[in-house]
Amino acid sequence: MEAKTTCRWAALSLSNIASVFLPDLLGREDAQYEHKLVAVSTTGSNERAQKWFEDNKIPNSQDIIVYNSWQTMLEQGDFDIVYVSTPHPLHYEEVMKALECKRNILVEKPATMNAAQYRQCTELANQQGCVLMEAMWTRYLPATRYLREELLPKIGKVRRVYSDFSFPIVGPDLQDTSRFLDKAAGGGALLDQGVYALTWADIALNGVEVGETKVAHSSSWSVPERPGDVDDINTVVLTTKDKGATAIVTTSMTIPGSSKPPFYVRLGAQKAAPSVRIEATEASVAIPFPPIRPEELHVQWYGYAHLNEDGTEKNEIVKKPVSGWGIWYQADIIAAAVFNKQPGVIGAQESLRVLGWMDEARTLAGITYDEKLEQV
Ligand SMILES: NC(=O)C1=CN([C@@H]2O[C@H](COP(=O)(O)OP(=O)(O)OC[C@H]3O[C@@H](n4cnc5c(N)ncnc54)[C@H](OP(=O)(O)O)[C@@H]3O)[C@@H](O)[C@H]2O)C=CC1
Ligand SMILES: O=C1OC[C@@H](O)[C@H](O)[C@H]1O
């Protein structure tokens, strides 16, 4: 068997999500590349970094270089891709600096605070010949790829989509200081969860052919009885006029939506109500909770040809299991672009569409952040 190419990663912060992504990725046998962590930067001490390696069972941790300055890591480090996993208001400055240093970048979702910032990043990535990708991992999972490549082309015209991503993360255990409730850290459900729910709407509306999708309505209620005044229950209606299609997109950090309590049980819930429902002219497709990590597509074909003998409708369940947590699939995709020398921005138009809708939705619903976080 041919030896795998090694892809050397740097992590810009030891955040919560880095504690999910890196253990899911490193040493993964079914990955196309041999992914290794070779550098990290952290605002914490070296001792904290060592404990983090231990707690997260990071292989070869003795060889990982720990930087106390992310700028120095970007300027001097020896690695193939940097993973930017800080809170979203920091992404723009960090990605721009990484691009100035001619780095390839996987940046957590949402890629930036607004579309204008990401547009700048995409332009600089193209000028510098780098690979840039938003870590919208859900797009690259087997069920999502099957939906886009096999199912959407067969179900006729998509006319209506319901897309929800809600879970009550703002529960009694969540401290007021959490990033979810902190505007300075980009807190709020639209940027955190809405980015996924809008991504599903985008896949459904524009997965086969890109139409002209606009935000027709957006309204928002803030998280009650907590400081921060961050957005919670959001309702965004998208319309794609040239296709006569509509998507109703919702989020919440306080009500369960389509999920089941408690949070982690819900993430593994098998029988929760659908989070996403795509209604097309020949069939509908439902995606159970959690929509960030689909493993099943429930397809209901319309018409007499698809009825059971007793006249009831046939439901087809397409199972597409995810290996590990699944956040690692995107890493093989960016690594392939890097090693096959295909610079550019992976998913640029998709990311920019969703960021643009979030901008419009925020304007209509009056969701604001300090202008310093939004600067280009
Ligand atoms: N793909 C997915 O499934 C998920 C993605 N995310 C995304 O990842 C990003 C990070 O989220 P999460 O891991 O929950 O964040 P955390 O609050 O856990 O992590 C923030 C980390 O960023 C570093 N940091 C550096 N400078 C600052 C600063 N000025 N303020 C705050 N933190 C700083 C710190 O790392 P250090 O201590 O090492 O310096 C800190 O621990 C967000 O954009 C979020 O949307 C989040 C959850 C899931
Ligand atoms: O990206 C995410 O996915 C999982 C959620 O727990 C989290 O809020 C969000 O940031």
UniProtKB/TrEMBL annotation:
Domain of life: Eukaryota
Catalytic activity annotation: D-xylose + NADP(+) = D-xylono-1,5-lactone + NADPH + H(+)
Broadest EC class assigned to this enzyme: oxidoreductase
Alphabetized UniProt keyword annotations: Oxidoreductase
Keyword hit for Glycoprotein: no
Molecular function GO labels: D-xylose 1-dehydrogenase (NADP+) activity; nucleotide binding
EC number: 1.1.1.179
Official protein name in the record: D-xylose 1-dehydrogenase (NADP(+), D-xylono-1,5-lactone-forming)
